[in-house]
Specification:
About 70% of the residues lie in helices and about 5% in strands. The chain is mainly alpha-helical and about 140 residues long. It has a two-stranded antiparallel ribbon with strand order 1-2.
Length: about 140
């Protein structure tokens, strides 16, 4: 980061979240639903099954006998959802040009590589900017 700012003064660096793929989003929702379901079953299982005219399954009694295991399991579901959400994306773009993709390379970028790629993109944009007035003059 510092090398980029040193080589390109005035460069604005921003970060943001990366949306996981759709199948991962559905997986996260499924795990969250299981988490809420487990908590609801623990706290309201007797009332729910009583309203249905049935006895709670033996699992409900086991959950109440070992509350720490139940809390640990519900917390474990949270850890799974958070892990699924954290896909470790690190994408570096400039004006729509992809400079580095951690998703594609499985590695963080080296600052000197980013500086070189950004320099070539800027040179290409500068050349395009110089060519446009010349083309407009030829058309006139």
């Amino acid at each position: 980061m510092q090398e980029l700012q040193r080589n390109f003064p005035g460069l604005k660096v921003e970060g943001g979240s990366y949306t996981p793929p759709v199948q991962v989003q559905y997986g996260i929702r499924a795990v969250r639903t299981a988490q809420v379901g487990a908590a609801a079953f623990f706290f309201f299982g007797e009332q729910i099954f009583g309203a249905l005219g049935r006895r709670p399954p033996p699992l409900h009694a086991q959950m109440h006998e070992n509350k720490m295991l139940t809390v640990g399991a519900i917390y474990g579901l949270d850890v799974i959802a958070q892990t699924m959400k954290a896909i470790n994306a690190f994408e570096v773009t400039y004006n729509g040009h992809l400079l580095h993709s951690k998703l594609a390379t499985s590695a963080f970028p080296q600052p000197h590589e980013l500086a070189a790629k950004l320099g070539s993109v800027l040179q290409g944009e500068q050349r395009q900017g110089e060519q446009q007035p010349a083309q407009e003059a030829q058309q006139a």
